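User: Some background: our group keeps a shared notebook of sequences we're curious about, and every so often someone picks one and asks for a predicted structure to add to the entry. Today it's my turn. The entry only has the sequence so far, pasted here. Could you supply the structure so I can complete it?
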Amino acid sequence: MKRIYINEQVCIGCHLCEVYCQVAHSRSKDLVKAFKRESPEPLPSLWVEERKPVCFPVQCHHCADPVCVYACLTGALWRDPDSGIVSVDMDKCIGCWTCILACPFGAIRQETDLGKIVKCDLCEGRDVPVCVTNCPNEALVYAEAQDDTVNHATIN
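Assistant: Of course. Here's the predicted structure to add to the notebook entry:
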């Protein structure tokens, strides 16, 4: 199973991963339209934490034992046993936010306009997530997980 790993030493906090994620998850798939014309404005599935001098994106780790899935009251969250991707069924999500409380990484956020959650889906259907493809410093790496029991790793 492939996962996104972060090299905090080269992340410059440019937020391009957020921008490209936001566009990829927009209805129009167009940069200008996504930011200027879509309502509600699409939210990125990840965001950059900045505590200078350290910056890094926060996104779902697609845990081997995802507590967010167990906390979900409606069964809207599930983990695909083959791909390991933790996905959300937006039709089932009622916006109770229990998954947000349960996630140990703070990787799930509220989409308050729709009353749903937003989380990384590893750009399902693409070979490489757009955040990784568009990171100018290659701070994000999409690589095979070494150990499925490890939820997060940092590449040096």
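Suggested note for the entry: The two ends are 20 Å apart (CA to CA). The first helix runs from residue 16 to 24.
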